[in-house]
Amino acid sequence: REVDLGSEAALLARLEGADPVVFQLQRREYQLRKMDTGLVAHSTICPHLLGPLTDADLVAGRLRCPWHGYEFDMASGECVFPADASCKLASPPILEHRQGRIIARS
Q1: What phi, psi does 17 have (nearest 5°)?
Q2: Is the pTM of the predicted complex or chain greater than 0.85?
Q3: Cα(59)–Cα(75) distance, rounded to whole angstroms?
Q4: Which residues contact 52 (CB under 8 A, 6 or more apart)?
Q5: With contact defined as beta carbons under 8 Å apart, do 98 and 6 qualify?
Q6: Half-sphere exposure (CA, 13 Å, Cβ side) for 24?
Q7: Burial class (CB in 10 A: 0-12, 13-18, 19+), 46
Q8: Along the 106 residues of the chain, how does pLDDT read in single tens digits?
Q9: What sign does the CA torsion over 10, 15, 16, 19 have?
């Protein structure tokens, strides 16, 4: 129930070059992103109408779905826009640093 995503240095280089890092874990697909607080992972599927989140903007800790503009707080997964929405991002995997490598586990 874990996947080795590779060396942290190689992953950061890919992300700096705007090369998306997408991986599967437990039959779900996630995308790795770099934030000021470190690496984070999120579902590649929007819970609103199942739109793709691989091209979603990530600004100030919020992920914005390109289809309908729904915004999700990356820390909690809660939908913060629109205010009356009840959907939430799927729980992300835990990212661990092990000997210079990033491991995603459920």
Answers
A1: -85, 10
A2: yes
A3: 13
A4: 44, 45, 46, 66, 67
A5: no
A6: 3
A7: buried
A8: 999 999 999 999 999 988 889 999 999 999 999 998 899 999 999 999 999 999 999 999 999 999 999 999 999 999 999 999 999 999 999 999 999 999 999 9
A9: positive
